[in-house]
Amino acid sequence: MRVLARPGSDRSNLQGIELDVVEGDLTDATSLARLCDDCDAVFHVAADYRLWAPEPEQLYRTNVDGTRALLDAARQAGVPRIVYTSSVATLGIPLDGRPGDEATPVTEADMVGHYKRSKFLAEVLVRRYAAEGLPVVIVNPSTPVGPRDVKPTPTGRVVRDAMNGRLPAYVDTGLNVVHVDDVARGHWLACQHGVVGERYILGGTNLSLRELLGEIADIVGRKPPRWRLPHAAVMPVAYAAEAWARLSGKPPIATVEEVRMSRKRMFFSSAKAERELGYTAGPVRVALEDAVNWFRQQG
Hints:
The chain is α/β, with parallel strands linked by helices. It is built from ten helices and eleven strands.
């Protein structure tokens, strides 16, 4: 097993695993060539997952240009199988409230913010490579939670802040939540059984944000949030938080992109992955408990 890791990056999640570490990044063609040399399969799971960045072009350099560079390296090396990790952020959401799936219509104009747009453009690129004959399969994880969220991701911050009582209110939105271990297994199933050029949602349970925060509160023994805030009331807070972030250099507690995204319930169906890959997802309660326990262990 071989992984690409940036020099000086946090490698705590790699401890205890026998693997060959290639130092480099998605902008370094030489390191990508070493990474792909004599590989049976490549899993492209790297992404810049930020819903706010002081320099948004960084997201496009990593998520779009970096994807192109890795696919070129894999094609040059003759890798027989590639799995690209996209996101449900690239998918459409039905207007009638039904869960979205891989066939729900969507355009670039529907993408809210630079993260979603960069992932959408990257997936368009991947599908073009697949049409040209590159053996690449696409997976679209929903909202993974669980242990080892070292940064943490935006999703991990919600879990961490909720368990610490920092989210006393909520907005009317929804997410599809899945254990990160199920997503990992879904990647392997896609590698074994996925159809080239097809995409597969790797999701779990659809929950309103109120239900999600209530589950976390129950796990840690806190009272659940009681107040629902209208989106219009939260938006000025997000603008102010981003302005302070530009001055302080610290990530904002809320972002304009998050508030805009929250106007839709991001519910999805994994029926295609279940039917074609044999994918299954475990109880959402276990995913949240594992995430809470890991954050507690990290202090």
